[in-house]
Specification:
This is 2-isopropylmalate synthase. InterPro entries: 2-IPM_HCS-like (IPR050073), 2-isopropylmalate_synth_dimer (IPR013709), AIPM/Hcit_synth_CS (IPR002034), Aldolase_TIM (IPR013785), LeuA/HCS_post-cat (IPR054691), LeuA_allosteric_dom_sf (IPR036230), LeuA_bact_synth (IPR005671), PYR_CT (IPR000891). The two termini are 41 Å apart. The protein is built from 17 helices and 18 strands. The chain folds into three domains: 10-284, TIM Barrel (Alpha-Beta Barrel); 301-391, Recoverin, domain 1; 397-516, Alpha-isopropylmalate synthase LeuA, regulatory domain (Double Stranded RNA Binding Domain, 2-Layer Sandwich). With 519 residues, the protein is α/β, with parallel strands linked by helices. The chain has helices spanning 32-45, 59-71, 85-95, 111-118, 122-137, 155-168, 184-197, 217-226, 248-257, 273-284, 305-313, 341-350, 357-373, 379-391, 434-446, 490-510, 512-516; strands at 10-11, 13-16, 49-53, 76-82, 100-108, 143-148, 172-177, 205-210, 231-234, 264-265, 301-302, 332-333, 397-405, 413-420, 423-430, 451-459, 468-476, 479-487. Helix 6 (155-168) packs across helix 7, helix 7 (184-197) packs parallel to helix 8 (217-226) and helix 15 (434-446) runs parallel beside helix 16 (490-510). The structure holds acetyl coenzyme *A (ACO), 3-methyl-2-oxobutanoic acid (KIV) and magnesium ion. Residues 21, 24, 54, 56-57, 82-84, 106-107, 117-118, 148, 178, 241 line the site of acetyl coenzyme *A (ACO).
Length: 519
């Protein structure tokens, strides 16, 4: 591996707005307790500034911002406010007890917003912005000013507003791509233009705040950082208004992974990224798409045999980051129809099966047959294949016949014929339903005392003609065995699974060494 020499790096401040812009995702509203919990996690993650909410929006938001401000020990806490005294009063009221309070005030600068939304002239916007910053400044040194819809604003007017805001005391000026309209090269040029044409820009930090309407939020943020921006406004999992905001994890890991091209550092503890992502998803109820960069379920998963073989030999063949770096324990080899022998052997070894080459060949053939029918082959499938194909001899019990009656007007009943050690036995029994009736009858015929720990049904293929697959987990005298059965009729599949589980228990009773692998 080529060792990278890390160039001198500069600091990029991470401003997290999961609790404010993130909460603007439809359906993502959080209560105060949830916001507090998330704020604690974001502090652990190491964000520099946490925008806790929009205190003028509601009593609840005010309360949450105020409690977060009092709770956090090291993180700056910001409250958003329109360019109005009332909003700024509320923002200050909520953040004032923070160790480092920040008032974040904003007004739109694009002509379309001026004309249709604000009904203001450019001069009025400048005046409003200056008054708002000055008023905020009367409470705290730490004032951020945002030019909403900055990326669609006239460049020279944008520079004029920033110059006036900095003159009025803003310590951070933020250039948002509010509607996710910018293209990376264009946004980079705009940032450079602002840096070159705002005379007092060196007195403030230039921030960017991108939305993801064209899927370009991370690219725009990185280009802007390259062009001189030093604060990135982001959210966990990229949640936010409409298509969301720039995702924290993508920006941080891009800077972390590509220091030669992006020689910038953040204060983020990357190992806290994944737990933070899980918490945001759990609290907001917004699921993370499986193929989401960094935190998606598949971000470190490998399904193709050639990739799996490579990853087993050296993870860097197909992984540009270590999963541990973002707080994941390990990469995941997903076993499916594209998997090869190396991945299968490795998974079996993790499960405690050290097979010879011949045994592996037998299991591999059965595994591929199953993988053709099923998307993912999971550990329980492998257990069945190994025990069926390698460990087990002939079955003691065989299902020869099953007939059930059930419906809304009859008592569920099952008639069963089994072969027990080659001898036919039959009987009938009742139950709460046809499956319960079948299990009761089979238990009576076999004399088993096994306890049913788990029963699950899934469809191997799609549609109403799907092959139903039933899995049972049985326990007897401390031994646990899985049973599987597949059939288009799930009642038959259930009986097959139960009989299969009983056979496995019998096998384990007779082979205590193998039994230890199931504990
Ligand atoms: C790009 C962004 O993410 S901006 C933040 C967006 N977030 C939110 O809006 C969530 C919180 N918002 C709210 O709870 C409400 O909108 C409130 C409480 C702030 C205001 O509610 P209302 O007083 O009923 O006003 P409403 O939301 O309908 O309209 C917004 C008003 O603010 C004005 N306004 C919008 N932005 C600004 C600004 N930055 N500075 C001053 N005034 C502004 C609008 O022109 C409009 O004024 P009008 O009533 O004179 O036409
Ligand atoms: C309030 C500002 C920063 C905003 O969220 C936006 O412009 O998208
Ligand atoms: Mg926004």
């Amino acid at each position: 591996m080529i060792k990278r020499s890390k160039p001198m790096s500069e600091r990029v401040y991470i401003f997290d707005t999961t609790l404010r812009d993130g909460e603007q995702s439809p359906g993502a509203s959080m209560n105060t307790a949830e916001k507090m919990r998330l704020a604690g996690q974001l502090e652990k993650l190491g964000v520099d500034v946490l925008e806790a909410g929009f205190p003028a929006a509601s009593e609840g938001d005010f309360d949450a911002v105020s409690q977060i401000a009092q709770k956090l020990k090291i993180t700056e806490v910001a409250g958003l406010a329109r360019a109005s005294k009332e909003d700024i009063d509320r923002a200050w009221g909520a953040v004032q007890h923070a160790v480092k309070p920040r008032i974040h005030t904003f007004i739109a600068t694009s002509d379309i917003h001026l004309k249709y939304k604000l009904n203001m002239t450019r001069d009025e916007v400048v005046k409003n912005a200056v008054e708002a910053v000055k008023y905020a400044k009367s409470f705290t040194e730490n004032v951020e000013f945002s030019a909403e819809d900055g990326s669609r604003s006239d460049r020279d007017f944008l520079c004029r507003v920033f110059e006036a805001a900095i003159e009025a005391g803003a310590t951070v000026v933020n250039l948002p791509d509010t509607v996710g309209y910018a293209i990376p090269s264009e946004f980079g040029e705009l940032v450079k233009y602002v840096m070159d044409h705002t005379p007092n820009i060196h007195k403030a930090i230039l921030s960017i705040h991108c939305h993801n309407d064209l899927g370009l939020a991370t690219a725009n943020t990185l280009t802007a950082i390259n062009a001189g921006a030093r604060q990135a406004e982001v959210t966990i999992n990229g949640i936010g208004e409409r298509a969301g905001n720039t995702s924290l994890e993508e920006v941080v890991m891009a800077l972390h992974t590509r220091p030669n091209y992006l020689p910038m550092e953040t204060n983020i503890r990357t190992e806290a990224i994944y737990p933070s992502s899980r918490l945001v998803s759990m609290i907001t109820g917004i699921l993370v798409q499986p193929n989401k960069a960094i935190v998606g379920a598949n971000a470190f998963a490998h399904e193709a045999g050639i990739h799996q073989d490579g990853v087993l030999k050296n993870p860097m063949t197909y992984e540009i980051m270590k999963p541990e770096t973002v707080g994941l324990n390990r990469n995941k080899l997903v076993l499916g129809k594209h998997s090869g022998r190396h991945a299968l052997r490795s998974r079996l070894k993790d499960m405690g099966y050290d097979l010879s080459d011949e045994e592996l060949s037998v299991v591999f053939t059965k595994f591929k047959e199953l993988a053709d029918k099923k998307k993912h082959v999971v550990d329980e499938d492998l257990e069945v294949i190994v025990t069926e194909g390698i460990l087990r001899t002939s079955d003691i019990f065989q299902l020869e016949y099953q007939h059930v009656t059930s419906g809304t007007t009859v008592f569920p009943m099952a008639s069963i014929k089994l072969s027990v050690n080659g001898r036919s036995v039959q009987g009938a029994g009742y139950g709460n339903g046809p499956i319960d009736a079948s299990f009761n009858t089979i238990a009576k015929l076999t004399g088993t005392e096994a306890e049913l720990l788990r029963f699950s049904v899934s469809a191997i293929t799609g549609g109403t003609d799907a092959l139903g697959e039933v899995t049972v987990r049985l326990k007897e005298n401390g031994l646990i065995a899985l049973g599987k059965g597949a059939d288009p009729d799930i009642i038959t599949a259930s009986a097959k699974a139960y009989v299969n589980g009983l056979n496995r228990l019998e096998y384990l009773k007779a082979h205590p060494v193998q039994a230890s692998q199931f504990m």
